[in-house]
Structures are given as structure tokens and as C-alpha cells.
Amino acid sequence: MVNNTTIERSVNIEAVNIERLKILSPIIASIPHGSSCITSEMENIMIQNVLLTNNDWFLNELYDFLNKLNITRVSANYSRYIIDVNRNINKKSMEGDYTESLVYHKTTFGKNIYENSLPSKVVENRIKEFYEPYHTCLLNEINSSLKQWNKVYLFDLHSFYAQSTADIVLGTSGRSTCSHEFLDHVYKSFVDEGFTVKIDEKGLKGGYIVSHYSSIENVEAIQIEIRYTTYIEDRYFGEEVVYYKDDILFNKTKERLTRVFKNIVRIVED
């Protein structure tokens, strides 16, 4: 475990926030959908009153303990509706389902966001300003840690509501992004804290980030999805923007997650 006197370092650029201690960590957490902020450019061209649903609400706050465990955290400062950094850049021209598109033209409930297709210049600007910086920062953190550690473990952190009734879903693209041993350790760490856990549920099998970065030698990656009802509020979630949470539930879940990740750190560092 890290010495408490270690000085914390935080790097904040326009598109990305990086938090880590001075000691490089073998564990890196990515939070690509934790912000609901949009730019004035998007606000000026989107359909008025359209609901930008299904962000990973309050996720940055939920995982704000990670850097205290010497887990590096890389998070996007802007909404997935600006551009989804968890998508392959080759899909920049797609205007179909949000699960495929780099830049969404419809909400997660299938509602149009814009009256017309976006000009290619707008898409290219968003790639340059938001997509590329995220992946540059994440790759830099991985490469820096690989210089010090034999292996680096990447967690891509998300939340969901409809795709499963489990508390936690671990996405590994068909158990291809990490070793069976590491997956078993992570699975058991959640189960030991009373979470119900599933692996590779439909729609939650892992996105571009875990698939792409696990292809780097000595990098193992797991997508971790937590259900809204497990940390926000135990209720039905529909087509909505979520403004409020059950603080008692939220704080209790954060305490449980802290113990989960403490155990993972102990396993990785042993």
C-alpha cells in the first residue's frame, strides 16, 4: 500500500482529467462517460429540449477514492454525446445506433439529437479536441506504468440500468481481454462484498477501450459496469436526466467498492 506522505499529482487539460500519485501504479481506471457536460457548439445545433439520457451519472464521485489507493484515474471531462471515446475511430461516419456510432446522432432512447447530419468538419474537430487527447493520455499512462511494472491492469468503469439485473457486470469480450486468474480475483472481490456479479452480459461485454488496450503486451483489461439501482437509487429509471441520488445508498456502495478495490490492489501488488 502507498505511503500516506506521497504527494498527489493531478493533471487537468480541457478534455481529460488525470489523477495519480507520484508512485506509478500498475492499476489504471478509465472513466469515459462520467461527465454530462456539453460544449456551446453542440448546444447551439442540437434540437431544443432533447434529453441526453444514460450517462454514467455520479460515477466520478463514486470512484473518487481510487487515487488514495494509488490507482491512476483517467476521466473524460465532456459527455459521451459530444463524442464517445469508447468507440472505434473508424466509425466516425456512422449515424446509426448509439452502440456503434462515434458521434451520436440519436439518444440512447432513439430520439434525434440534430435536425440534420453533422458536417464532417464538426466531427473532425470533436475527434481532435476530445477523442484524441483522451486516448493519448490513457496510452501515456499505460506505457509509463509498463516501464515500472511487469503487468498493467486497466479497468474501464461504467454504469447501466436495463441490460441486466445484476449489481455488477464484468465485460471481457468473451473472456479475451484478461487472464482467467485475474478475472476470478476481481469477480470474487465483488462477490465477497455482497454484490451480485455477472460476466459478459448482452450489451455489456466490453467496448473499444478494453478490447483495444488489452491487445498491448502485458496489459489486462476489464470493463466494470455498476447498475443504477445499486448506487443511485433503488427505483425504475426511464428516459430522463438524473439529478438526484440516494446519499445513504450511494455512500454505502462507495464504502463497499473501496473494500473491493483495496483487495484488488493487494492481489496485484503481492
Describe it.
This is N-formylglutamate amidohydrolase. Keywords: Hydrolase. With 270 residues, the protein is of the alpha/beta class. The chain has helices at residues 40-45, 59-62, 120-146, 180-191, 208-213, 228-231, 247-269; strands spanning 8-12, 16-21, 27-31, 72-76, 152-160, 168-171, 197-199, 219-227. It has an eight-stranded mixed β-sheet with strand order 1-2-4-3-5-8-6-7, sandwiched between helices. The longest helix has 27 residues, at 120-146. The protein is globular and about 55 Å long.
Kindly list the characteristics that best describe this protein:
Aminopeptidase, globular, alpha/beta, 30% helix, 7 helices, N-formylglutamate amidohydrolase, hydrolase activity, 270 residues, hydrolase, 8-stranded mixed sheet, N-FG_amidohydro
Briefly summarize what is shown:
It contains 7 helices and 8 strands.
